[in-house]
Amino acid sequence: MSAAFSIMPSLRTVWLVLAALISPLLFVSLAAAGPVDWLADHTEAVAKARKQGKLLLVVHLSGDFAKNSPDASEAKLYRQLILGDPRVAAALADRFVVTYRHVGEAKALPRLVSTEEKGRKDDRVEAVKGPLKPPEMAIAYVCLPDERVLHFVPGFVSPLELLVELEWVEATYSRLVKAREAEMPAILRAAHREVVDQQDLDGFAGLFPTRWTENLPPPEYTTVDLPEGLAAARSVWDWSQRQRLGVRGPLELKNRSKRLARELVRSDRLAALAAHGRLGSDFAHLVLSEFPLVYLSDLAGPAFEACAGQRFWQAMPRREELARWWADCCKSGRRTLLIIADDRPTAEGDSPAESRPAWPADDAAQLAELWRVATQVVTIDELASLLTDASLQPLAYDPASGPPRFILHDARGFRYAEVAAKDATAEKLADILRTAVGPGVRETTVQPAGVQGSNVKE
After folding, report:
1. 242 in a structural domain
2. Does 13 share its domain with 138?
3. What predicted TM-score, i.e. pTM, was given to this entire model?
4. Which residue range forms the structural domain that includes residue 89?
5. Residue 128 in contact with residue 114, Cβ under 8 Å?
6. Are 443 and 423 in contact (CB under 8 A)?
7. Using one digit for the tens of pLDDT, what is the confidence trace for 65-114?
8. How far apart are CA 120 and CA 118, in angstroms?
9. What element of type H or E holds 406?
10. CA separation for the pair 189, 278 (Å, rounded)
């Protein structure tokens, strides 16, 4: 971002204002525009877009993913503040299928606010204050019917700002449909680069060297490339906002190390501006100038984490299956043991992988069978959904240590044993099972067909 940005408007700013004034979107008959119909079922929305040949507007919100309620504060705010504007409704009416999804943490599995113990060099918890309410965030993705991303708009933007971005998409899309499939990524990349200040592009290239080579096909990206590219773009945005506010860092952004870039991404100094002031379309243009037509399924997780600083939660395919399993266990009067899989990514500088237990663990399931306890290995996302679907007591946890590794319930759904990940050993589990269930007759039972991970005998 140019240092003169705070003194006079940039060319992009002028373009945005003019586009908003002369955009054909604004001349659509507003009287005919009704409320925007947005679908909670993502699969249904994709099928509808493909059938009708429309673009997708996918809105990800930071509310409880396990409930995905249209009455959640984030959903009501976005729909009333932004989609409720008649100009936006008119622009979306004939060209878009709109869908929303909450991707924030579940109220059934809240993190706790903890304070770091003073005077100590480690990060042990001194006191627990209560559940932590994550900051609100929204990201709107404009996608082709096959869910490749044309553009995205982070933050609770104003209706006019969203309208301008939709107009940019319409103009760019009209160029794409005239091109061959193989030419589309390069055309979209060039369109994103056209509207970003050159100094921002230089800073981004310094933190994330491009994989693109002239006259060669688009480079393939990996699950590592995307988070690093998003972190670099977020650092450029952070620096640009400081420039606007007249704050200059001691180093030029393009000379900063990747480690410093990650530190900037983790800082929350501009979190409020990112969520409610708007993160800035320049951030999205930078990301998509390197990853044009990236699939939403690849981009959504790291983009939400980069923008909101929160974990990206999502309903898993086994959700209904797990709910049925739980109901069957309660009906047959069986105790249950949930083994929480470790899905934490291995970060740079972590200890060797062998220092972490590998889950699911066969010995844990075998021990449960000895005491005739129905067992399921679940991810953290599945655990949150199951706690919600079964109306179980919320399970609050310290984010430093994570959720428990073992959770034991009786036949009524009462939780009477938890084992933290750091204490999760076969010996510890055996002690708990002996105490809670009793020695009894240890006989293995037959696993019923079609019930994955369960040893409930029907």
Report:
1. yes
2. yes
3. 0.77
4. 3-308
5. yes
6. no
7. 999 999 999 999 999 989 999 999 999 998 999 999 999 999 999 988 65
8. 6
9. strand 406-409
10. 22
